[in-house]
């Protein structure tokens, strides 16, 4: 079973891989392309991807611990104003070890991102069902819209995100979801270019701190690019001493 398996259709997608971390970027790209062909608002796509990432990561970390990775199947269906996503494995989930991933917080994050979460543990494996009502996504309601933009440059071993504009405190949840989504929940090393950040950075400070915590949970760190002359340099003074964040002046 490899990353070429599965079927994609405008109303459904079905992908089967082995539950190995290196499959995460490919899976995310495949599912993102399918979601963007549905009627999902942009923010709903990001929330769905983040919830999927948590479910997939939990399967990869917990289902086949201490034995070879087994099958992992991810599927999605677009039903009118609803998208239903499923993640299924054939392993037996084990409790998280200290410092290993988000643990129970991963389930809470899934519940925050989508409308309904169901988890069914059986003797033959675990099934996670994520249901997202797309008729009232954040884009249409205007909640936490913010005034920022992100540009993503990715490779197999690094994600570089350039953040432009103001990020007030109310925009922190959206930025956090965006950053966790593109970095597969902190699994892929993340570099944030803050050279074009605007004067409002309260939301950026909150979001980056939470993303750094998630990355630390899987053994990673976040790198911030903050040129000395930038607006961000004066306003994000706490980060140079942050135990989970590295700060550099240029890429």
Helix % is 25-40%
SSE sequence, one letter per element: EEHHEEHEEHEEHEHEHE
Amino-to-carboxy terminus distance = 38 Å
As laid out across the biggest beta sheet, the strand order is 1-2-3-4-6-5
CATH topology of the largest domain: Heat Shock Protein 90
Quaternary structure classification: single chain
Total individual domains: 2
CATH superfamily of the largest domain: Histidine kinase-like ATPase, C-terminal domain
Rounded Rg? 18 Å
The unreliable regions are 96-103, 136-145
**Which sheet architecture does the biggest sheet show?**
6 strands, antiparallel
Instruction: Examine the secondary-structure arrangement and name the CATH architecture of the largest domain.
Output: 2-Layer Sandwich
Number of extended strands: 11
Strand residue percentage:
25-35%
Shape: globular
What descriptors fit this protein?
5-stranded mixed beta sheet; 2 domains; alpha/beta; 251 residues; 29% strand; Transcription Regulator spoIIAA
Précis, in short:
Helices cover 32% and strands 29% of the residues. It has 251 residues and is an alpha/beta fold. A hairpin with a 4-residue loop joins strand 7 and strand 8 (159-165).
How would you characterize this protein structure?
This protein has 251 residues and is α/β, with parallel strands linked by helices. The chain folds into two domains: 130 residues, Histidine kinase-like ATPase, C-terminal domain (Heat Shock Protein 90); 105 residues, STAS domain (Transcription Regulator spoIIAA, 2-Layer Sandwich). The strands form two sheets. The chain has a six-stranded antiparallel beta sheet, with helices on one face. Strands 7-8-9-10-11 form a five-stranded mixed beta sheet. The longest helix is centred in the N-terminal third of the chain and has 22 residues. About 7% of the residues have low confidence.
């Amino acid at each position: 079973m490899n990353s070429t398996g599965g079927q994609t259709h405008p109303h459904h997608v079905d992908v089967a891989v082995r539950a190995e971390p290196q499959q995460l970027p490919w899976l995310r790209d495949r599912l993102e392309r399918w979601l963007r062909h549905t009627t999902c608002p942009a923010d709903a796509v990001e929330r769905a991807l983040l919830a999927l990432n948590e479910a997939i990561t939990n399967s990869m970390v917990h289902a086949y611990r201490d034995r070879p990775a087994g099958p992992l199947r991810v599927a999605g269906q677009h039903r009118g104003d609803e998208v239903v996503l499923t993640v299924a494995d054939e392993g037996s989930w084990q409790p998280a070890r200290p410092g290993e991933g988000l643990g129970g917080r991963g389930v809470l994050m899934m519940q925050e991102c989508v409308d309904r979460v169901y988890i069914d543990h059986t003797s033959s494996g675990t099934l996670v069902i994520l249901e997202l009502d797309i008729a009232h996504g954040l884009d249409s309601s205007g909640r936490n819209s913010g005034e920022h933009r992100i540009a993503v440059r990715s490779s197999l071993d690094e994600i570089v995100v350039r953040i432009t504009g103001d990020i007030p405190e109310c925009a922190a949840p959206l930025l956090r979801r965006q950053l966790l989504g593109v970095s597969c929940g902190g699994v892929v090393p993340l570099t944030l270019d803050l050279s074009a950040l605007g004067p409002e950075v309260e939301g950026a400070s909150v979001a980056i701190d939470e993303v750094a915590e998630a990355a630390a949970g899987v053994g990673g760190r976040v790198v911030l690019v903050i040129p000395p002359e930038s607006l961000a340099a004066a306003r994000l003074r706490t980060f140079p001493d942050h135990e989970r964040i590295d700060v550099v002046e240029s890429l």
